[in-house]
Specification:
19% strand, SH3 type barrels, alpha+beta, Arc Repressor Mutant, subunit A, single chain, 221 residues, two-stranded antiparallel ribbon
């Protein structure tokens, strides 16, 4: 039986795999830091996940999800992102509130409930933060987006998604007009000072590089 704890581990490993360079295993410490648990607890769980067949794990060499591990992780992510959109659209949650609530609900809903809200939402492709919703078949659309920090000054871009679930940050970004599908100009990137100047509707705003690296965009012609 897949428990909520196992689902959380699969989600975390999947996210870390996407953040790491392709092919590099996820370390025990990375998982421990991401989930705020002890490395010894992670090691114990990784051994269990390996026995089930969700991961390939070798002590001191890191871990990779197997094919079934990836599909299981994407199924949890699918439920999470559908719930986020459902909470926003039908229950009037703001986009900075939906993540925490969806984390609680994703482990509880049935397949029937998932199918129902998917149909109600019109089989959506993206969640409120612009991140793609995995398909029922366990795949996820690939979007050729880049971090805001690597865009050249003077470029016009469209914001695709924000890879950050901190409520305070999301509130701030909404206040200054940074949301999915917003078009912005990059005025300046000050790597030394750690800031990025963007222009939204002819108004310049400054954000930190640490924030900008979690904002993914596509260039506009």
């Amino acid at each position: 039986m897949i428990t909520p704890t196992i689902e959380d581990y699969l989600k975390s490993i999947y996210s870390l795999e996407q953040s790491n360079n392709q092919g590099i295993p996820v370390s025990t410490n990375e998982i421990a830091n991401a989930m705020n648990v002890s490395p010894s607890s992670v090691t114990k769980m990784l051994k269990k996940l390996s026995e089930i067949g969700f991961v390939e794990y070798t002590s001191h060499q890191g871990v990779r999800l197997t094919n079934i591990g990836v599909k299981s992780a994407l199924y949890v992510i699918r439920k999470h992102r559908l719930l986020e959109l459902f909470l926003q659209k039908y229950l009037n949650y703001s986009w900075d509130e939906v993540h925490e609530e969806a984390c609680k609900l994703e482990h509880c809903i049935s397949e029937k409930f998932e199918n129902t809200i998917n149909n109600m939402l019109g089989e959506p492709k993206f969640d409120p933060h612009g991140e793609p919703i995995p398909t029922k078949q366990g795949t996820i659309p690939e979007i050729n987006a880049i971090s805001l920090t690597v865009v050249k000054p003077g470029s016009k871009v469209k914001i695709r998604w924000i890879k950050n679930d901190k409520p305070e940050l999301l509130k701030y970004l909404e206040e200054i007009g940074i949301q999915p599908n917003t078009e912005v100009f990059i005025d300046e990137i000050d790597s030394f000072g750690g800031t990025v100047a963007i222009n939204i509707n002819e108004t310049q705003k400054w954000i930190g590089v640490e924030v900008a690296q979690d904002i993914f965009v596509t260039p506009e012609n």
